[in-house]
Amino acid sequence: MYFVSPLFFFSCSVFANLRIVMGEEVERLKKKLFELQAERESCLKDIREAEEYLAGTPVGLRGRLIDEEGFPRADCDLYAVRSARNKHNCRSNDLKDIEETMYTEMMRLQDLTRDVAAQQMTAAPAKPSIATRDDSRPVNAEREAMLSKRPFLRIVDVKMNSPAWDGGLRDGFEVVQYDDIDSESAAENWRSALQSVTAENAPVTVWARTPNGAVADFFLVPRQWEGNGLLGCSFEAL
């Protein structure tokens, strides 16, 4: 009879709990980033509206509000112009703060995603009814749906330190859903479909089947980096 140290079971328990905590933190960061993205879109909308209004005035964003004689201009609504300029400045400052926060959270998320992906790569092959970062938990409805979907793209040529790499994607992963695009909706136009939902700094969730058979979600943030494109990987149809 072999003796197994209690320390072994303690270590396994700690590791399993760590995986759960990491998974929960990933989900929390994803939720926060989507909320920040919504705030960013709101800022951009307000900035565009202010710019469009000011573009239709004689003074624009920076023009003088007094005439050559030093009197308030009479050819535009000065109150509305000041309000639009103030809105533009305030929302521009808000946008800067939001994007700085998004960048910080993106880096944290990508670090965590790499760790989770490494665990998934070394985990035992998933059973048909189980596909979670923590094998002790049953799949949720969304993950269950992904298990039944047919992969339609293979990921190839993932560049190191690219957004795809930082998000946890690796060569050989098979995509079952990219954002809301799957094998049924993409059909033969998958390239244009992917391009339509891939924008700089706009988070994208990719569901993919890893080589060990598990189906997992990977959180990507397309962005400019030292290489080509916003992702740093290629796809080929299956």
TrEMBL record:
InterPro entries reported in the protein's UniProt record: Nas2_N, PDZ_sf, PSMD9
The name this protein goes by in its record: Nas2 N_terminal domain containing protein, putative
The organism of origin for this protein: Angomonas deanei
A single Gene Ontology CC term: cytoplasm
Keyword Acyltransferase applies: no
Lineage of the organism: Eukaryota, Discoba, Euglenozoa, Kinetoplastea, Metakinetoplastina
Leader peptide range in chain numbering: 1-23
Keywords of the record: Chaperone, Signal
Nas2 N-terminal domain location: 34-107
One GO BP annotation of this record: proteasome regulatory particle assembly
